[in-house]
Design goal:
5 strands, Beta-Lactamase, alpha+beta, single chain
């Protein structure tokens, strides 16, 4: 094989290799951006639930503060849950007859698990209210939204 052909073939192989590596790197970066945006939305929703707890006179008033329509539709893919002392649980109407299997942590923690309508990613944290009540507050969203954003 001539030197010219070897140079052309070698150049083509390097071009293909660098294109493949570049495409892989760009895909990973976009996936990380999508993951971070999803987690930031979960953090924002989690903070909204905590703020609603602080503003509500009782748990029945939470609906006044949590006005996202997705929380009212059964199995909508967006959920919140508050676990109180003695195993009491208050859940969004979107959970209908289900509950989230959440991890208990005093620090904010992200987790993935089965939800009522498929796999969800959630954020939970144990908080102490002004009244001294310990609550485990969690929000979750169906992973289909993250999958759609990645695509």
């Amino acid at each position: 094989m001539s030197l010219q052909r070897r140079i052309i073939l070698g150049g083509l192989l390097w071009a293909l290799l660098t294109t493949f590596i570049g495409a892989f790197a760009v895909t990973r970066v976009f996936d990380q951006i999508a993951d971070r945006r999803f987690d930031l939305l979960l953090e924002e929703r989690h903070n909204q639930v905590i703020a609603a707890i602080g503003g509500a006179r009782n748990f029945d008033d939470l609906q006044v503060f949590l006005t996202d329509p997705a929380y009212d539709r059964a199995y909508s893919g967006r959920y919140w849950q508050i676990a109180g002392p003695g195993g009491e649980r208050l859940t969004s109407p979107s959970l209908f007859d289900s509950e989230l299997q959440i991890i208990q942590s005093e620090q904010p923690i992200y987790w993935e698990g089965r939800g009522p309508s498929g796999w969800v990613r959630g954020r939970s944290e144990i908080i102490l209210t002004e009244a001294g009540t310990v609550l485990n507050v969690a929000v979750a969203e169906n992973l289909s939204a993250l999958t759609a954003e990645r695509q």
